[in-house]
Design brief:
Structural class: mainly alpha
Distance between the termini: 21 Å
Order of helices and strands: HHHHHEEHHHEEHHHHHHHHHH
Strand order of the largest sheet: 1-2
Number of strands: 4
Oligomer: single chain
Largest sheet: 2 strands, antiparallel
């Protein structure tokens, strides 16, 4: 039977409650995308490209690529409006193994690693308000185990959001709408203040005079190893490497596809929410960087005593937004930014937790995950999936490996993006008569451009950051025997 046309209740996400409007769906896209990245990663980008012009170009290219991908996923979302999203798209375009490898990597590292990293950011910035919640407050340090207050704060935030979402999609969407709305308004206020009353004319003059003066500052242990002047192929490679941060600050836009089984009008609203959400975030990110450039010079020194002297490149702990806030508001700026980042990360994690559990649920429906995870509670929520996800996220928080794991899967995630967008070509050929309420604009040219650009970034990573590539592929490939193990378990249960 053609699974794309199957009337299976499981594949349609039967039992899930359709409670998400277009506004709710857009808030999931926006809220899941804006975490802590926009407040931090501009420092690393600035060290890699060295000037204001290419700093903005890196963010612009990331935004354009994200928009192309989101609009392409919009076609798939309209075609297959089911719980599981990208897992379902890959399964239908290729085969169950490819779908499983995505779901496996998503659960093991991508979604859970992101949730853990965002939760730890919440904990670290909470410590600015309450120092006792910081990493320096070590609560357990024995038998090779070290647990600090920031880790427990992170786990507590994951537990609270998981409990809210266990009570149903309605409570989850209310939290999402509140926190997303609050952080968008706060970011807009900071952008306006930064570009107007916070403008530093000396920083602006310096940034304009060196607008296209590219350089790559190579670092090790917080020290400058060398500064490489860029041009030609070297510049292209640097842009590719720099885009890792901007792309993953723009990541998680596809989370709404995971919850398509709970959108009221998924064939219409999933594509629209993807388009509107990614457009909003792309604009906010560009304007936020314009605000940074209005307050701080790009170039600086790690040995500078002042915030302006450190510049965007060497903002303390890469906290560019905090440096900008301190320049505008003095010592109160750090507190203001801490509150904003706490609001941002809390809202971001709500969307990630809400959406990620739906992939585990869809995999369990296909007998490729724990059977208990395939069930819904009385509120129509995948409670078991949410609990399993929270437990693994907590393990990652305690292990401290979430950051490394996220670095490792960057390469693999780009491959899954390319496979999913290439799946549009496959599905149009396999199922030409299937109803497509929304068709990817610019087909096939924009999709080819995306695949080529993503492939070029992968090549740059292979050459310049190989440690971020092979470990990620190994994590994905470990999923192959796991897939066949789940298949064997399923066959035994059916025997």
């Amino acid at each position: 039977m053609d699974t794309l046309k199957s009337n299976s209740a499981a594949s349609r996400g039967a039992g899930l409650r359709r409670d998400l409007s277009l506004f709710d769906s857009t808030m999931i896209v926006v809220g899941s995308m804006i975490g802590s990245g926009i407040f931090i990663v501009s420092a690393d980008i600035a060290r890699t490209v060295g000037c204001a012009g290419y700093l903005l170009i890196v963010w612009l290219i990331a935004g354009v690529l994200t928009m192309i991908a989101a609009l392409s996923y919009g076609e798939l979302g309209g075609l297959m409006p089911r719980a599981g999203g990208q897992y379902v798209y890959l399964r239908e375009a290729y085969n169950p193994l490819i779908g499983f490898l995505f779901g496996w990597t998503l659960f093991l590292v991508i979604q859970t690693g992101t949730i853990s990293a965002v939760a730890m950011a919440f904990g670290k910035f909470a410590a600015i308000l309450i120092p006792g919640l910081g990493e320096k407050n070590v609560l357990i340090d024995s038998f090779g185990i070290s647990i600090n207050a920031a880790q427990l704060t992170a786990i507590a935030s994951i537990a609270v959001l998981t409990m809210i979402n266990i009570r149903g999609i309605h409570g989850g969407k209310i939290v999402q709408n509140m926190f997303t709305g609050a952080k968008v308004i706060a970011i807009l206020i900071l952008i306006i203040l930064g570009i107007t009353i916070g403008m530093n004319h000396e920083a602006v003059a310096q940034n304009l005079s060196t607008f296209w003066n590219t350089s790559w500052t190579h670092m090790a242990d917080g020290k400058i190893l060398s500064v490489e002047t860029l041009s030609g192929a070297g510049l292209a490679a640097a842009i590719g490497v720099a885009m890792v941060g901007s792309l993953f600050s723009s990541d998680a836009w596809f989370d709404i596809t995971f919850t398509a089984g709970e959108v009221k009008n998924p064939t219409r609203d999933v594509p629209r929410s993807l388009a509107m959400g990614t457009a909003i975030v792309t604009l906010l990110y560009l304007l936020a960087n314009v605000a940074y450039l209005s307050i701080l010079p790009v170039q600086g020194s790690p040995d500078a005593s002042g915030i302006a002297g450190a510049g965007i490149q060497f903002a303390a702990n890469d906290r560019v937004a905090t440096a900008a806030g301190t320049m505008m508001f003095g010592t109160a700026g750090a507190v203001i930014m801490a509150v904003l980042i706490m609001v941002s990360t809390f809202g971001c994690n709500n969307g990630l937790i809400l959406a990620g559990a739906r992939v585990c649920y869809a995999m369990a429906q296909d007998r490729l995950f724990f059977n208990r995870v395939s069930r819904l509670n009385a509120k129509g929520a995948p409670a078991a999936a949410l609990i399993v996800q929270a437990i693994w996220c907590s393990v990652l928080c305690l292990s401290g490996t979430y950051g490394d794991l996220l670095d490792y899967v960057i390469f693999a995630v780009l491959i899954f993006y390319m496979l999913t967008i290439a799946g549009i070509f496959i599905l149009r050929k396999k199922n030409p008569e299937a109803e497509r309420p929304f068709k990817a604009p610019g087909y096939p040219f924009l999709q080819i451009i995306y695949i080529l650009c993503a492939a070029a970034i992968c090549v740059s990573l292979l050459i310049y950051k190989p440690k971020y590539t092979w470990p990620g592929l190994i994590i994905v490939l470990i999923g192959v025997p796991v897939y066949f193990l789940w298949k064997w378990i399923g066959q035994r249960e059916n025997a």
